[in-house]
Amino acid sequence: MDGTSIHLAAEAPVAGGELLFRPPAGRRGLACWLALPNEVAPGKAPLVAVHGIHRGAEAQARAFAARAFAEGRPVIAPLFDQAAWPAYQQVVRKGRADLALLALLDDLRAIGVCGGRRIALAGYSGGGQFAHRFAMLYPHMIERLTVTSAGWFTFPDAAPFPYGHGPAPKARGDWGTRMAAGLGRFLELPVAVCVGALDDQSDPTLRHRPDLDLQQGTNRVARARAWAETLRSAAGARGIAARVTFSLLPGCGHDFGDCVTRGGLDRIVLPQGAAGPDPDSR
């Protein structure tokens, strides 16, 4: 690994490995926090954990480090800067957050942080929005997907993108069609949909529109449940055995730390024995 490419964080290392900060490579590069185990299992897909709108990338890396280290799995927590990626949740708008993540992964492979092409992908709140849309665009890259407390979703239906895969105003491009093209493969993925059991209230950050509320519900619990059910229905309509789970995290509202410590989110994101080495590793 090129030691000049990664900077050691000032905080003490976490047990079983170390926590590192990698600054952005160039003006359009994507910074990240890394939790690297002392022993990396050959070919083990890294966990990419995506923050919410408060951009707590370090907290993401710390939260999943212990279970990832037990598997020899690296954790990559990208940091989507507000100025460069103000709408990173929608993946393809205002800066192309998807391309930034792809470039970051290529850079990390080049310096030996991870191998192979697949990732385990998890996102919280705004990161949950990013994660499921990224997985819809690039399902061939995903080992396992966990979406927690997303404010709203892209549904596998004919609603205009980004609410569904249907045609959207020209300014938004043809992304719904591109996601729909990989829908069959996406529906074959193991997908864990999670939300705090107490996260059933509206707040200023939750998007509302009459058509959105009608399609998805008026709070995060209703929306997560509706999306999980729609994925199962879409899979069944294609003759695919759905691998979608829905979990209410007990005692949790809209707080990432509580979702981990009270709700056991880390055990859902990284269930022991969930997957072996990445068959595409090089």
Write a concise synopsis of the structure shown.
The protein has helices at residues 57-71, 97-110, 126-137, 175-181, 183-187, 210-216, 220-237, 256-261, 265-269; strands at residues 7-8, 17-22, 31-37, 47-50, 75-79, 119-124, 142-148, 190-196, 243-249.
Taking strands numbered 1, 2, ... along the chain, how are they ordered across the largest sheet?
Answer: 1-2-3-5-4-6-7-8-9
CATH class: Alpha Beta
Question: Can you write the helix and strand succession as a string?
Answer: EEEEHEHEHEHHEHHEHH
Cα distance, first to last residue?
A: 16 Å
For the secondary structure, the number of strands is 9
- CATH topological fold name: Rossmann fold
Low-confidence segments, given as residue ranges, are: 276-282
CATH homologous superfamily caption: Alpha/Beta hydrolase fold, catalytic domain
Radius of gyration (Å): 18 Å
- State the helicity in percent bands: 25-40%
Shape: globular
Largest sheet: 9 strands, mixed
From the coordinates shown, what is the CATH architecture? 3-Layer(aba) Sandwich
Q: What is the average per-residue confidence, as pLDDT, rounded to a whole number? A: 90
